[in-house]
């Protein structure tokens, strides 16, 4: 988010809100929201009181930086961070009973799975919904580089990948032998 020429990466994680300064090139997640339509990946939301408290902390942090932010604008920003269209949508989702979630996906989560049929562990760097709400774009930084070539006399290692996944953490794109590019253990 850019306010008066200064770039802020805003990450909302219950029960606190964190703001970090930086420029867009060093913070790629500053341009992406954590998954829109979050309820398709996980249906766990904090209560409305906690969401309002997050908005209050966000507003205070911005005001401390001499950037005026109304309470309603802070609520709308919190809603966007949770992938909701607006505050009313998030409030309605938060009021519903939370379903038992799979392993929750969020920016900063440590995950495991298989990339091009090679096992990996890594950290989620970015997560956002794609138009239509069925698929999400995820960027993962692997703990150790993954060899993406199966040919014995050649190797190509990757430390970071971006892919599309569905609600089950499986990529719709497949290799020539029918194996999904990315499969997360959720």
How would you portray this structure in words?
With 186 residues, the protein is an alpha+beta fold. It folds into 2 domains: 2-95, no CATH class; 110-184, no CATH class. Helices cover 20% and strands 31% of the residues. It is built from 3 helices and 8 strands. It has helices spanning 48-64, 71-81, 87-95; strands at residues 2-3, 6-13, 16-21, 110-115, 118-129, 136-147, 157-165, 182-184. The strands form 2 sheets. It has a 5-stranded antiparallel beta sheet with strand order 7-6-5-4-8, with no helix packed on it. A hairpin with a 2-residue loop joins strand 2 (6-13) and strand 3 (16-21). Helix 1 (48-64) packs across helix 2 and helix 2 packs across helix 3 (87-95). The protein is elongated and about 60 Å long. The protein starts with a strand and ends with a strand.
Helices and strands in order, then pairings?
Layout: E1 2-3, E2 6-13, E3 16-21, H1 48-64, H2 71-81, H3 87-95, E4 110-115, E5 118-129, E6 136-147, E7 157-165, E8 182-184
Antiparallel strand pairs: 1-2, 2-3, 4-5, 4-8, 5-6, 6-7
Helix pairs in contact: 1-2, 2-3
Bulk shape: elongated
Number of helical stretches of at least 4 residues: 3
Oligomeric composition of the shown chains: single chain
Report the span from N to C terminus: 30 Å
Order of strands across the main sheet: 7-6-5-4-8
**Rg for CA atoms:** 18 Å
Reported for the largest beta sheet, the result is: 5 strands, antiparallel
Low-confidence stretches: 1-42
């Amino acid at each position: 988010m850019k306010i008066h020429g200064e770039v802020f990466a805003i990450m909302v994680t219950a029960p606190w809100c964190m703001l970090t300064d930086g420029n867009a090139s060093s913070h790629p997640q500053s341009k992406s929201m954590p998954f829109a339509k979050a309820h398709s990946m996980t249906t766990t939301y904090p209560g409305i009181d906690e969401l309002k408290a997050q908005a209050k902390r966000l507003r205070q942090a911005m005001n401390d930086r001499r950037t005026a932010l109304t309470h309603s604008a802070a609520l709308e920003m919190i809603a966007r961070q949770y992938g909701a269209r607006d505050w009313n949508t998030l409030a309605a989702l938060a009021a519903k009973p939370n379903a038992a979630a799979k392993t929750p996906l969020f920016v900063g989560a440590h995950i495991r799975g298989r990339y091009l049929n090679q096992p990996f562990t890594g950290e989620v760097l970015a997560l956002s919904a794609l138009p239509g709400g069925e698929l999400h774009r995820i960027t993962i930084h692997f703990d150790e580089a993954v060899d993406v070539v199966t040919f014995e006399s050649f190797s190509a290692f990757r430390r970071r990948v971006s892919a599309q996944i569905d609600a089950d953490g499986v990529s719709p794109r497949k290799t020539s032998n029918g194996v999904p590019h990315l499969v997360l253990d959720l």
